[in-house]
Write a structure and sequence with these properties.
This protein is mainly β and 402 residues long. The chain has a single domain, classed as Neuraminidase (6 Propeller), CATH 2.120.10. The chain is 5% helix and 35% strand. The strands form 6 sheets. A 4-stranded antiparallel β-sheet has the order 1-23-22-21. A 4-stranded antiparallel β-sheet has the order 5-6-7-8, with no helix packed on it.
Length: 402
Amino acid sequence: MSRTKRLAGAICAACMVPGLALGQSWNESPPNAPNQRPAFAGQTRAPEVRSNVAFTAVTIAEGLENPWGLAFLPDGRMLVTERAGRLRIISPDGGISPAVEGLPAIMVKGQGGLLGLALDPNYATNGLIYWSYSEPQANGTNNTAVARGRLADGPTPGMQDVQVIFHQQPSLESNLHFGGRLVFARDGKLFITLGERSIPAGRMQAQKLDGLLGKIVRLNPDGSVPKDNPFVRKKGVRPEIWSYGHRNVQAAAIHPATGELWEIEHGTRGGDELNIPRKGKDYGWSTIAYGIEYNGGTITGGITAQKGMEQPLYYWDPVIGPSGMTFYTGSRFPEWKGSLFVGGMRGTALVRLVLDGERVVGEERLLTDQRERIRDVVQGPDGALYMLTDDPKGRLFKIVPR
């Protein structure tokens, strides 16, 4: 029996038996910061829910080296980034192309490499593909950058007309916290999520408006700054900034009803956050934060709230290690319609959040029996959920109704 069939059977069986797919409740795990209290009811540890959905997991492609980002081409093929610096084209039947040639130089080290993907909203007419990556500098520093180009098919595919449209500044000597998700809004503007690079020199930059570390930026597709950005014409402030006070945002998506950007960012030991990053707002890192330092110490004295800083809609302690998210709008899983799905790397699960407006009212953990780090989750054009697993021999798979 093939690995795909074995996997599908195992997950189907888990879904058919109530509770089996979830295993032990995560809400029974003690928090890392037991003395911290949520700012409002329901801000953390939402009630555990269990959907009555039978599904099958189907592996499409295997042997991908730490795949990171996924996007669909109009013809049904998929683009997948490998953090090792390769962009692949994957056919619906699982065929994997040679690495796409013509990408700019990429620093592959630590958490750095080839990261997020997005197709231009006008891809049908302009053919533009966008990707984020860690960019090496001659002085030994590095930063997050975004480029765009047009795909040229062939036995060895390549990128043509490549332009680097964004460079994060300042550039630091760090291999951590690059952010890297790319999301186009309904108005055609491009959101780029940026980490604060983790090291002390970067962490302090998340609250500074003269740099781009720990920020979400908003650009026109050509990399220019929209005239209605919040800090345009503010002296000493980077006009690209949309919101600030972020740690390391690796999950972002547009809400299908409101059109607003939602994001989830990594905490330390506790403190993964779900936010709606609004124009010009401060999301607190690292002045306020939930959770504790990796060494067990408090983060900036353990303060979790301060005037002028936004509270997360929801936070996790212990963390899930969020990466990739999608709002489910399809018809193949009616019970899941309107849910927010999040990849869980630390939690080794597909996390489903049940929403009531801007409140999280339920949480479900799926695929926990597979014990895989889910790096990205995307709703496909067919209404299935497609996922990438973060592993040196990672895979692309989808779940479909049984």
